[in-house]
Amino acid sequence: MSNPLLGVLFHWLGGLASASFYVPFRKVRGWSWEIYWLIGGLFSWVLAPWIFAFFRTENLFGVIAAANSETLLLCVFYGLLWGMGGLTFGLTMRYLGLSLGMAVALGLCAFFGTIVPPIVQGTFFTEVLPTTHGKIVMLGLVMCLIGIAIVGAGGINKEKESSPEERQKNIAEFDLKKGLWIALFCGLMSSCFAFGIAAGAPIAELSAAAGTHQLFKGLPVICIVLIGGTITNLIWCAYLIRRNKTAREILKPRQDSKANRVASSGWNLLWCAIAGVTWYFQFFFYVMGESQMGEYGFSSWTLHMASIIIFSSLWGFALSEWKGSSKKTLAYVFTGLAFLVGSTVVIGYGNSLT
After folding, report:
1. Domains: count for the chain
2. What is the pLDDT of residue 152?
3. Can you name one GO molecular function term for this protein (predicted)?
4. ∠ Cα 142 225 73 (to 5°)
5. Residue 294 lies in domain
6. What is the pLDDT of residue 127?
7. Which whole-number Å values give the CA distances from 341 to 126, 200, 290, in the listed order?
8. Would you call 320 exposed, middle or buried from its count of C-beta atoms within 10 A (0-12, 13-18, 19+)?
9. Class of residue 110 by CB neighbours under 10 A (exposed 0-12, middle 13-18, buried 19+)
């Protein structure tokens, strides 16, 4: 039996994990982006997914072997496309910071990732829009998008208020124009993860039939989708490593005179591992949340995106990205956050009526 309110809680936990994963990367010293992104990614896309799926599901490899090959290939394909967005996600944070970067990228991601799956499945116009609970869930999506837009407006207003020196202090490589273009691409491609999860529903059902608890039946799907994402990220990072000749940094990081400590491969590996596993937890909790949302599981994507932006905005305050902002800018941010929190409540309520 589904429990949408519990599902909302799980999605909040997933959003917290996703919003927090990039913070440990800030501790990495002497490694270029492509090095720490790839090493952190090995924990995110390979080690954590398969280890958790192995211990939390029944007959993992038997379930995957029994799955239809077309289903597996489709999941991998969507993972490849998602990987194109995932590998530019770090660049979005790099040029826009946590708050504004996530607002733009995840706004697009939330819309397409929520709307497209039920449209493709043929249920959006026949089973979602005509019903009262379906309209309530769509209202939650609209509230989410409005909240994202308002938070994004606050970030843009902040950028206008800040001096170049302040922007460089809080976000060393701040570049609004470049960051927005990267965020646009990132958001469109990142929504493909939702398509992959929807395409992998038969795998989740096979896992449940094998005896996996309802909460964890979606974990094998995450493993398959991430195969595609791993391929995309591996190719891109390998290209950057070769072009920039940064492979030597893995064993001998560049020394940064401004760093608070001497650059160390051991410490860097630890921070990358923490970042990577934290990133994975967003989908560990995602599948748990989706399992509780009933027939409108597609609404999980909106809950996930809203939760990420809520917690990333709070991280923005913790990391002083909003320091010195005017009352007008802060009003934007808090109003946007209110819409986002409200959207999760509305969606949870709509699902409880199904």
Report:
1. 1
2. 77
3. rhamnose transmembrane transporter activity
4. 115
5. 4-352
6. 80
7. 28, 29, 18
8. exposed
9. buried
Q: How far apart are CA 81 and CA 226, in angstroms?
A: 11
DSSP one-letter code for 246: -
In 3D space, the residue among 278, 287, 298 whose CA is nearest the CA of residue 57 turns out to be 287
Rounded distance between C-alpha atoms, residue 128 and residue 290, angstroms:
17
Burial string for 74-105 (b: 16+ CB within 10 Å, else e) reads bbbbbbbbbbbbbbbbbbbbbbbbbbbbbbbb
CA-CA distance, 211 to 251, in Å (whole number)?
A: 44
Distance CA 291, CA 295 (A): 10
User: Phi and psi at residue 331, in whole multiples of 5°?
Assistant: -65, -40
Whether residue 80 contacts residue 199, with contact meaning beta carbons closer than 8 Å, is answered with: no
Contact 182, 100 (CB under 8 A): no
The residues, any chain, with a CB within 8 Å of residue 248's CB and separated by 6 or more, are: none
Q: Do 192 and 78 touch, CB atoms closer than 8 A?
A: yes
Name the nearest CA neighbour of 100 among 37, 171, 33, 164.
171
Residues near 253 by beta carbon (within 8 Å), at least 6 away in sequence: 29, 30, 31, 263, 264, 265, 268
Residues in CB range of 341: below 8 A, 6 or more apart: 306, 310
Sign of CA dihedral 81, 18, 218, 134: negative
Q: In this structure, what token pair is assigned to residue 164?
A: 């170049």
Task: Give the count of alpha carbons within 13 A of 73, CB side only.
Answer: 3
Specify the residue for token string 């991601």.
109
Place of tokens 């893995």: 250
pLDDT of residue 170: 53
Query: Beta-carbon neighbour count of residue 177 at 10 Å?
Result: 8
Burial class of residue 253, CB neighbours in 10 A (0-12, 13-18, 19+): buried
How high is the mean pLDDT in each 10-residue block of the chain (354 residues)? 84 92 89 92 96 97 96 96 82 70 76 82 80 86 87 77 60 70 84 91 96 95 96 93 92 69 83 96 94 79 86 82 80 89 86 73
